[in-house]
Specification:
Chains A, B: This is Prephenate/arogenate dehydrogenase domain-containing protein. The structure is a homodimer. By secondary structure, chain A is α/β, with parallel strands linked by helices. Chain A has two domains: 174 residues, Rossmann fold; 104 residues, 6-phosphogluconate dehydrogenase C-terminal fold (Orthogonal Bundle), CATH 1.10.3660.10. Chain A contains eleven helices and nine strands. In chain A, the strands form two sheets. Chain A has a six-stranded parallel β-sheet with strand order 3-2-1-4-5-6. Chain A has a three-stranded mixed β-sheet with strand order 7-8-9, covered by helices on one side. Chain A is globular and about 70 Å long. The N terminus of chain A is likely disordered. At the A-B interface, helix 7, helix 8, helix 9, helix 10 and helix 11 of A face helix 7, helix 8, helix 9, helix 10 and helix 11 of B.
Chain lengths: 303, 303
Amino acid sequence: MTVMVGDSVNTSSCHESRLLIVGLGLIGGSLAAALRVAGFQGQIAACDPDEQEIARGIEMGLIDSGGTQLAELVDDATMVVLAVPVLAMESVMANLAEALPNASADVVITDVGSTKATIRACAQRVFGQVPTNMVLGHPIAGSEKSGVAAANPRLYVDHKVILTPEPNVDRSALQRVRCLWKACGAEVLEMDVERHDQVLARTSHLPHLLAFSLVDTLARQDERLDIFRYAAGGFRDFTRIAGSDPVMWRDIFIANKEAVLASLDDFEAGLSRLRHAVEAGDSDALIATFDRASHARHYSTLY
Amino acid sequence: MTVMVGDSVNTSSCHESRLLIVGLGLIGGSLAAALRVAGFQGQIAACDPDEQEIARGIEMGLIDSGGTQLAELVDDATMVVLAVPVLAMESVMANLAEALPNASADVVITDVGSTKATIRACAQRVFGQVPTNMVLGHPIAGSEKSGVAAANPRLYVDHKVILTPEPNVDRSALQRVRCLWKACGAEVLEMDVERHDQVLARTSHLPHLLAFSLVDTLARQDERLDIFRYAAGGFRDFTRIAGSDPVMWRDIFIANKEAVLASLDDFEAGLSRLRHAVEAGDSDALIATFDRASHARHYSTLY
């Protein structure tokens, strides 16, 4: 057992004896890869509806075993990480609830979903309340690639993981989830569910909505996609962002609808102000806006 | 003399004996740096109102000489490259018109401005018409850095340079400007002024406007800039784009106002459609939009 002194934990230690990853895509696969690189000593199993993903995960040395049936895999897991798309979370939790009576007594459950209020609501519907051994979380990391083949052991290094524990959470469960992510090189933060969903709506969901919208609008106008040949710096970034997984993002916009629409309201008010400045040729207003925007980036922590 | 076979030009050949760069910032400095690396044999002079930039350019070995007075530098130039902000172009052209009677008989003039209709209009006002030895152009390359200190000899490698020659252009002047950019490793294209301004409004100016607007809106809301700490992938790209030079972009939005506002109209119509899909939780519409957007990127040539 590693000695802990206050909050000072050996960041490379995660002592789960058997981790079960449910959903073996980029996020789940990268978690397994990061743990392997960190010298994780436990077993890693995965559950995924796609048998080929399981086979690939074993072949890549990321997981020890796996299958398509959750009930058969949950028995001796000490930690279960739900890494499925947001809208698949409820049915997976329902399967988990059925299987849990057979599970280890000290099992801890966590997830990696990009929205937290809807996932908390799933847990409340399935379990009656969020179980005290469940710690909801969200690693702020990703890629335009998907699938276990794209697993990257450094995906979480120096990235933030936001945990959104309920007030009555079991403190040792929370600590074990913190250890899991610290072992992957991440910085672990905590905030409440509502704040998480508002912050992510503004800093992640809205930018993706704008990128999807701009690229789609141009693609509709330009059937031959000719103008995409001239993509300058700004647009190249937009097309890359808009290359993200459509199903994952459909789920996010449906799950975090209210916070996304509120942030969109604010954006549209700001865009309208800037539009008027362009229409009026208002040099001072344009410079003031661009100055403020260009300074703001210094507050953005690279990760 | 390099032998040319049809369009097959030795891409590293640019035979100007004296190049004068007016405006020694990132763009002008990178042009000098690229030519040096390509083994350019001619002299390179620069004119800039900032004496320190000239001194730095000489110290860095990018230019042979320079000064703050255009009239003193233009005499024996064989090619003049105007690399000043868009709204400074008219006064620079007026200075150039005064100095040109003393210039070499076969001097060629080109520019690097991000908008072409307003610069063509400057030339028409200053010279009565666009001189046949003037070839307007736009290298689609840049950086969030500025100043000659940020000069990068590879800035134009595999990037596109769009030339927008007038119908009555001197063909050898056009060919010499093509050679200049090919020597820097760029791909040189031609299109008319109006098409250039429309394409760039959509693929560069509008994305920058959206990034400036989003980052400014969030900075206004969040005085402590706390949410910038959680910047996820999409937002990090937006803050980087919004870190671009405020004066340069003020000029672009004033100079290309009509095309920018037209592209903004289209964008707002598309965003409104997407907003309704989010409000309605219309899964099919969201997936269709995201699918189209994510496929469009395959048409975007990386550079």
